[in-house]
Amino acid sequence: MRRSHVIAATTMAALGVLAGFAAPARAQTAVTVFEGARLIVGNESAPIENGTLVVDGARIVQAGRAADVTVPAGATRVNLAGKTVMPMLIDTHVHLSPTRELLTRDLRRRAYFGVSAALSMGTDNIELLPMRYETIPGAARFFSAGRGITMPEPGRITVPHWITTEAEGRKAVQELAGQKVDIVKIWVDTREGKYKKLTPEIDKTFHDAVVSFRRMSLAETSSAKPLRIRVVTAGDDDTVERLAARMAIHDRPVDRFRIINGLTAGDRIKPGDQVKIVTE
Length: 280
What we know:
There is one protein chain. The chain is α/β, with parallel strands linked by helices and about 280 residues long. The protein folds into 3 domains: about 80 residues, Urease, subunit C, domain 1 (Roll), CATH 2.30.40.10; about 120 residues, Alpha-Beta Barrel (TIM Barrel); about 55 residues, Membrane-bound Lytic Murein Transglycosylase D, Chain A (Roll), CATH 3.10.350. It is about 20% helix and about 25% strand. The chain has 7 helices and 13 strands. Strands 1, 2, 3, 4, 5 and 6 form a 6-stranded mixed sheet that branches. A 3-stranded parallel sheet has the order 7-8-9. It is extended. The N terminus is likely disordered.
């Protein structure tokens, strides 16, 4: 039986995955053309026989039948006859290893089998979260839920947050938000009656806390301005409200002023007190 050859490719890794399959002619441009392959586009359309894939730098710019693709002059040409090219897969639920060495092995093994990204769900070593921002040669991208959240489950691993109250649940979500996890994992089942299920009250607290955090849009990121903490001395006429009004924050400035200065609702400012305010 003839052995089949399948190549997984993504727009960001196409050159690294594909370039080693033939000795191409000398390149004149940054464009590489992969020819003669069977293309599976991944949009439920039929496979394309004798397909051509055009890659400009790290981006796939054309993919289709050879007769329908325009090959730029001077492009590097790679013959993939007899091979199949398809999009890489995304693994959205997996539990990866807890050490850097083993996690790197996990990610490289997944890339070898055509997985471009893996989302580890709730049992991760938080010290390894910075690996999400690393480019590891020959490895899938790493995404993580950090430490998941569950009611106490004696006898199981203790990596997740074990919580029993709304306050503990809210604190766990805030910690995860501070770590910039990619998703919050919450176990809500009883494991076939072995453990207690999260109460509706705690579950609602999770929902309210989670939806209060969101990633900034590209437009928000582009328009964002750096803010600084400045220490000022309160004058004779200064109050919490007046000092809060001086801050470069328009969303609940009084509440935020109290938080950064450790003040409760009943605390007052006295002349000569040194307090922190947020400025541009």
